[in-house]
Q: What sequence folds into this?
Protein backbone atom coordinates (compact mmCIF):
# COMPACT_ATOMS: atom_id res chain seq x y z
CA UNK A 1 0.00 0.00 0.00
CA UNK A 2 2.84 2.36 0.86
CA UNK A 3 4.62 1.63 -2.41
CA UNK A 4 1.39 2.04 -4.37
CA UNK A 5 0.56 5.44 -2.88
CA UNK A 6 4.14 6.64 -3.29
CA UNK A 7 4.10 5.50 -6.93
CA UNK A 8 0.77 7.27 -7.53
CA UNK A 9 2.22 10.44 -6.05
CA UNK A 10 5.23 10.37 -8.33
CA UNK A 11 2.98 9.56 -11.31
CA UNK A 12 0.65 12.48 -10.52
CA UNK A 13 3.57 14.83 -10.12
CA UNK A 14 5.01 13.72 -13.47
CA UNK A 15 1.66 14.07 -15.27
CA UNK A 16 1.23 17.59 -13.84
CA UNK A 17 4.68 18.53 -15.11
CA UNK A 18 4.05 17.16 -18.60
CA UNK A 19 0.67 18.90 -18.84
CA UNK A 20 2.24 22.16 -17.79
CA UNK A 21 5.04 21.89 -20.37
CA UNK A 22 2.64 21.04 -23.18
CA UNK A 23 0.01 23.64 -22.41
CA UNK A 24 1.84 26.63 -21.00
CA UNK A 25 5.38 26.76 -22.33
CA UNK A 26 6.06 28.11 -25.87
CA UNK A 27 7.09 25.46 -28.42
CA UNK A 28 8.95 27.51 -31.05
CA UNK A 29 12.73 27.22 -31.18
CA UNK A 30 15.06 30.13 -31.99
CA UNK A 31 18.81 30.35 -32.36
CA UNK A 32 20.73 33.43 -31.47
CA UNK A 33 24.39 33.86 -32.30
CA UNK A 34 26.60 34.87 -29.50
CA UNK A 35 28.93 37.85 -29.77
CA UNK A 36 31.70 38.25 -27.27
CA UNK A 37 32.40 41.88 -28.18
CA UNK A 38 36.08 41.48 -28.51
CA UNK A 39 36.43 39.29 -25.42
CA UNK A 40 34.56 41.67 -23.03
CA UNK A 41 31.51 39.43 -22.66
CA UNK A 42 27.88 40.57 -22.84
CA UNK A 43 27.04 44.24 -22.92
CA UNK A 44 24.65 45.82 -20.43
CA UNK A 45 22.08 45.98 -23.18
CA UNK A 46 22.34 42.24 -23.81
CA UNK A 47 22.04 41.40 -20.12
CA UNK A 48 19.02 43.66 -19.68
CA UNK A 49 17.44 42.13 -22.75
CA UNK A 50 17.96 38.61 -21.38
CA UNK A 51 16.37 39.49 -18.01
CA UNK A 52 13.44 41.11 -19.76
CA UNK A 53 12.97 38.09 -22.02
CA UNK A 54 12.97 35.60 -19.12
CA UNK A 55 10.58 37.75 -17.08
CA UNK A 56 8.26 38.10 -20.04
CA UNK A 57 8.33 34.34 -20.73
CA UNK A 58 7.45 33.58 -17.12
CA UNK A 59 4.55 35.98 -17.18
CA UNK A 60 3.25 34.72 -20.50
CA UNK A 61 3.52 31.09 -19.37
CA UNK A 62 1.18 31.91 -16.52
CA UNK A 63 3.30 30.08 -13.91
CA UNK A 64 3.43 33.11 -11.65
CA UNK A 65 -0.33 33.62 -11.78
CA UNK A 66 -1.51 30.01 -11.69
CA UNK A 67 -1.84 29.41 -8.01
CA UNK A 68 -3.70 26.15 -8.64
CA UNK A 69 -0.71 24.74 -10.43
CA UNK A 70 1.63 25.94 -7.71
CA UNK A 71 -0.55 24.50 -4.97
CA UNK A 72 -0.87 21.17 -6.80
CA UNK A 73 2.86 20.94 -7.32
CA UNK A 74 3.47 21.86 -3.68
CA UNK A 75 0.97 19.26 -2.48
CA UNK A 76 2.56 16.59 -4.65
CA UNK A 77 6.00 17.42 -3.28
CA UNK A 78 4.67 17.40 0.30
CA UNK A 79 2.99 13.99 -0.16
CA UNK A 80 6.15 12.65 -1.74
CA UNK A 81 8.20 13.93 1.18
CA UNK A 82 5.75 12.47 3.71
CA UNK A 83 5.84 9.11 1.92
CA UNK A 84 9.62 9.11 2.04
CA UNK A 85 9.45 9.94 5.77
CA UNK A 86 7.04 7.08 6.46
CA UNK A 87 9.25 4.66 4.57
CA UNK A 88 12.23 5.85 6.60
CA UNK A 89 10.39 5.50 9.93
CA UNK A 90 8.51 2.31 9.05
CA UNK A 91 11.32 0.10 10.22
CA UNK A 92 10.99 1.44 13.75
CA UNK A 93 7.27 0.63 14.10
CA UNK A 94 6.49 -2.61 15.91
CA UNK A 95 4.13 -4.88 14.04
CA UNK A 96 1.44 -6.18 16.40
CA UNK A 97 0.39 -8.68 13.73
CA UNK A 98 3.79 -10.32 13.91
CA UNK A 99 2.90 -13.91 13.15
CA UNK A 100 5.54 -15.11 15.57
CA UNK A 101 3.91 -13.11 18.35
CA UNK A 102 7.15 -12.84 20.27
CA UNK A 103 7.64 -11.53 23.77
CA UNK A 104 7.18 -7.91 22.77
CA UNK A 105 3.91 -8.18 20.87
CA UNK A 106 0.61 -6.96 22.20
CA UNK A 107 -0.64 -10.54 22.47
CA UNK A 108 1.64 -11.39 25.36
CA UNK A 109 1.23 -10.27 28.93
CA UNK A 110 2.86 -11.43 32.18
CA UNK A 111 -0.05 -13.83 32.64
CA UNK A 112 1.50 -16.15 30.06
CA UNK A 113 3.52 -18.94 31.65
CA UNK A 114 7.22 -19.32 30.92
CA UNK A 115 8.67 -22.83 30.91
CA UNK A 116 5.49 -24.21 32.42
CA UNK A 117 5.85 -22.26 35.68
CA UNK A 118 2.53 -21.63 37.41
CA UNK A 119 1.14 -18.10 37.30
CA UNK A 120 -0.89 -17.41 40.43
CA UNK A 121 -3.52 -14.75 40.97
CA UNK A 122 -2.06 -12.43 43.59
CA UNK A 123 -4.28 -10.00 45.47
CA UNK A 124 -3.34 -6.37 45.05
CA UNK A 125 -2.62 -4.87 48.47
CA UNK A 126 -1.07 -1.74 49.88
CA UNK A 127 2.34 -3.34 50.46
CA UNK A 128 3.95 -4.29 47.13
CA UNK A 129 6.21 -6.82 48.90
CA UNK A 130 3.46 -8.75 50.66
CA UNK A 131 2.35 -11.70 48.57
CA UNK A 132 -1.23 -12.84 49.10
CA UNK A 133 -2.43 -15.63 46.82
CA UNK A 134 -6.13 -16.10 46.31
CA UNK A 135 -8.25 -19.15 47.05
CA UNK A 136 -11.89 -19.80 46.26
CA UNK A 137 -14.06 -18.89 49.19
CA UNK A 138 -12.15 -15.71 49.96
CA UNK A 139 -14.61 -13.69 47.90
CA UNK A 140 -18.24 -13.28 48.76
CA UNK A 141 -20.80 -13.86 46.04
CA UNK A 142 -21.29 -10.64 44.09
CA UNK A 143 -17.86 -9.18 44.85
CA UNK A 144 -14.64 -8.40 43.02
CA UNK A 145 -10.90 -8.46 43.81
CA UNK A 146 -8.10 -6.79 41.81
CA UNK A 147 -5.29 -9.25 41.04
CA UNK A 148 -1.88 -9.31 39.32
CA UNK A 149 0.25 -12.27 38.20
CA UNK A 150 2.78 -13.94 40.50
CA UNK A 151 5.39 -16.68 39.97
CA UNK A 152 7.31 -18.43 42.72
CA UNK A 153 10.54 -17.50 40.91
CA UNK A 154 9.73 -13.85 41.66
CA UNK A 155 9.62 -14.40 45.42
CA UNK A 156 12.51 -12.56 47.06
CA UNK A 157 13.02 -10.27 44.04
CA UNK A 158 11.46 -6.93 44.93
CA UNK A 159 12.11 -5.45 41.50
CA UNK A 160 10.24 -8.31 39.77
CA UNK A 161 7.37 -8.10 42.26
CA UNK A 162 7.12 -4.36 41.75
CA UNK A 163 7.23 -4.75 37.96
CA UNK A 164 4.36 -7.25 38.06
CA UNK A 165 2.34 -4.73 40.08
CA UNK A 166 3.03 -1.81 37.78
CA UNK A 167 2.99 -3.22 34.27
CA UNK A 168 0.20 -1.68 32.21
CA UNK A 169 -1.05 -5.02 30.84
CA UNK A 170 -1.06 -6.97 34.15
CA UNK A 171 -4.08 -5.70 36.12
CA UNK A 172 -7.02 -8.05 36.18
CA UNK A 173 -10.19 -8.47 38.22
CA UNK A 174 -11.42 -11.66 39.79
CA UNK A 175 -15.21 -11.80 40.19
CA UNK A 176 -17.42 -14.13 42.10
CA UNK A 177 -20.84 -13.80 40.55
CA UNK A 178 -24.03 -14.38 42.48
CA UNK A 179 -25.42 -17.90 41.98
CA UNK A 180 -28.51 -16.54 40.22
CA UNK A 181 -26.52 -14.72 37.52
CA UNK A 182 -26.92 -16.37 34.13
CA UNK A 183 -23.80 -16.06 31.99
CA UNK A 184 -24.22 -16.45 28.25
CA UNK A 185 -22.88 -19.79 27.04
CA UNK A 186 -20.23 -19.40 24.36
CA UNK A 187 -18.16 -22.25 22.93
CA UNK A 188 -15.04 -20.04 22.74
CA UNK A 189 -15.27 -19.29 26.48
CA UNK A 190 -15.86 -22.83 27.66
CA UNK A 191 -13.66 -23.78 30.63
CA UNK A 192 -12.32 -20.26 31.18
CA UNK A 193 -14.11 -19.78 34.51
CA UNK A 194 -14.00 -21.75 37.74
CA UNK A 195 -17.54 -22.25 39.04
CA UNK A 196 -18.89 -18.72 39.66
CA UNK A 197 -15.43 -17.13 39.42
CA UNK A 198 -14.51 -15.16 36.30
CA UNK A 199 -11.46 -12.98 35.61
CA UNK A 200 -11.13 -10.11 33.14
CA UNK A 201 -8.59 -7.47 32.23
CA UNK A 202 -8.98 -4.32 34.26
CA UNK A 203 -7.86 -2.03 31.40
CA UNK A 204 -10.71 -0.37 29.53
CA UNK A 205 -10.81 -1.18 25.83
CA UNK A 206 -11.75 2.40 25.00
CA UNK A 207 -8.75 4.47 26.08
CA UNK A 208 -7.13 2.35 28.76
CA UNK A 209 -8.47 3.70 32.06
CA UNK A 210 -8.75 1.20 34.91
CA UNK A 211 -12.27 -0.17 35.06
CA UNK A 212 -12.95 0.06 38.75
CA UNK A 213 -16.66 0.28 39.47
CA UNK A 214 -18.64 -2.91 39.91
CA UNK A 215 -22.42 -2.59 40.04
CA UNK A 216 -23.04 -5.94 41.67
CA UNK A 217 -26.84 -5.65 41.62
CA UNK A 218 -26.92 -5.50 37.83
CA UNK A 219 -23.59 -7.24 37.11
CA UNK A 220 -22.16 -4.32 35.18
CA UNK A 221 -18.63 -2.94 35.22
CA UNK A 222 -18.28 0.80 34.77
CA UNK A 223 -15.32 2.72 33.47
CA UNK A 224 -15.20 6.11 35.23
CA UNK A 225 -13.44 7.91 32.38
CA UNK A 226 -16.15 7.92 29.71
CA UNK A 227 -18.84 5.76 31.30
CA UNK A 228 -18.45 2.62 29.21
CA UNK A 229 -20.32 -0.30 30.75
CA UNK A 230 -19.42 -3.97 30.41
CA UNK A 231 -21.91 -6.77 31.04
CA UNK A 232 -20.51 -9.70 33.04
CA UNK A 233 -23.46 -11.83 31.91
CA UNK A 234 -22.16 -11.42 28.35
CA UNK A 235 -18.48 -12.04 29.05
CA UNK A 236 -17.80 -8.35 29.62
CA UNK A 237 -19.18 -7.18 26.28
CA UNK A 238 -19.67 -3.38 26.18
CA UNK A 239 -23.34 -2.45 26.44
CA UNK A 240 -23.03 1.33 26.83
CA UNK A 241 -20.49 4.06 26.12
CA UNK A 242 -17.67 4.47 23.61
CA UNK A 243 -15.89 1.15 24.16
CA UNK A 244 -16.50 -1.34 21.32
CA UNK A 245 -14.46 -4.35 22.44
CA UNK A 246 -15.14 -6.70 25.33
CA UNK A 247 -12.72 -6.76 28.23
CA UNK A 248 -10.31 -9.64 27.51
CA UNK A 249 -11.04 -12.67 29.68
CA UNK A 250 -8.34 -14.42 31.70
CA UNK A 251 -8.81 -18.21 31.78
CA UNK A 252 -8.48 -19.43 35.36
CA UNK A 253 -8.40 -22.65 37.33
CA UNK A 254 -7.57 -23.84 40.85
CA UNK A 255 -4.42 -25.90 41.38
CA UNK A 256 -3.97 -28.93 43.63
CA UNK A 257 -3.06 -26.70 46.57
CA UNK A 258 -6.30 -24.77 46.21
CA UNK A 259 -4.94 -21.53 44.74
CA UNK A 260 -6.23 -19.71 41.71
CA UNK A 261 -3.88 -19.91 38.71
CA UNK A 262 -4.07 -18.56 35.18
CA UNK A 263 -4.55 -21.21 32.52
CA UNK A 264 -3.14 -18.96 29.83
CA UNK A 265 -2.99 -15.40 28.61
CA UNK A 266 -5.92 -13.06 27.99
CA UNK A 267 -8.30 -13.92 25.18
CA UNK A 268 -7.36 -10.73 23.28
CA UNK A 269 -4.84 -7.87 23.46
CA UNK A 270 -5.36 -5.68 26.50
CA UNK A 271 -6.45 -2.05 26.35
CA UNK A 272 -7.46 0.23 23.50
CA UNK A 273 -7.91 -1.19 20.03
CA UNK A 274 -5.57 -0.52 17.14
CA UNK A 275 -5.52 -1.08 13.42
CA UNK A 276 -6.77 -4.43 12.16
CA UNK A 277 -7.94 -5.52 15.62
CA UNK A 278 -11.48 -6.81 15.29
CA UNK A 279 -13.99 -5.53 17.86
S1 LIG B 1 -11.39 4.88 28.90
FE1 LIG B 1 -13.06 3.69 29.59
S2 LIG B 1 -14.73 4.59 28.65
FE2 LIG B 1 -13.09 5.76 27.93
A:
Amino acid sequence: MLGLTSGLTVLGFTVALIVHIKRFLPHEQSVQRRHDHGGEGSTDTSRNTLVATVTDAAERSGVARRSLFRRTAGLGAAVLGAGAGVVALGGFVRDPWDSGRGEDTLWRTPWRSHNGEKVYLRAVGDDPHTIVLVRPGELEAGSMMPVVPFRESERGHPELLAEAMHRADSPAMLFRLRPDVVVERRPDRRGMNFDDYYAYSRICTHLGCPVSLFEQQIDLLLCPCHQSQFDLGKHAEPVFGPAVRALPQLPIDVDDDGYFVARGDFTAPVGPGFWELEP
The pocket of FE2/S2 (inorganic) cluster is lined by residues 204, 206-207, 209, 223, 225-226, 228, 241-243 (CB under 6 Å). Helices lie at 2-24, 44-61, 67-90, 158-166. The first strand starts at residue 120 and ends at 123. The chain is about 25% helix and 15% strand.
